[in-house]
Amino acid sequence: MQSHPKIRALEEAQLRPEIAPVRVGNTIRVHYKIVEGEKERIQVFQGVVIRRKRAGARSTFTVRKVSFGIGVERVFPSHSPYIDKIEVVSEGLVRRSRLYYLRDLSGKKARIRARRDE
To answer: In this prediction, what percent of the chain has a pLDDT beyond 70?
Structure first.
């Protein structure tokens, strides 16, 4: 189904190509702007990308981390103006597009193999 050309032009105007490419299995650090009243600060969320949804301007990715023994997942819109920057800490080698099985694992079993560039 084709969308209207004006809608497509609006969506393309909102895309942010300067955002680092996010791949499933990578450990990333997301610098997210938090607005509290008139003040603005940057909060860093570091974890493993367990899911990526590709939908143009509505694309999202889910990052999971374990904080004080409790698993925390956060969904980020890929082209959000609140994302300051994304740093790739390490690249993981996975064979799945959705890593939901990590929710049931803990400790060493939840590790992801590192990708080695040749």
So the answer is: 97
The contacts of residue 55 (CB under 8 Å, 6+ apart) are none
pLDDT tens string 4-56: 888 778 777 778 777 778 899 999 999 999 999 999 999 999 999 999 998 88
Contact 94, 49 (CB under 8 A): no
3-state SS, the chain, equals CCCCHHHHHHHHHHCCCCCCCCCCCCEEEEEEEEEECCEEEEEEEEEEEEEEECCHHHCEEEEEEEECCEEEEEEEECCCCCEEEEEEEECECCCCCCCHHHHHCCHHHHCCCECCCC
How would you classify the pairing of strands 27-36 and 39-53? antiparallel
pTM metric for this prediction: 0.84
Closest CA to 22 of 61, 59, 57: 61
**Residue 44 tokens, joined:** 């860093």
Q: How do residues 36-49 score in pLDDT, each as one tens digit?
A: 999 999 999 999 99
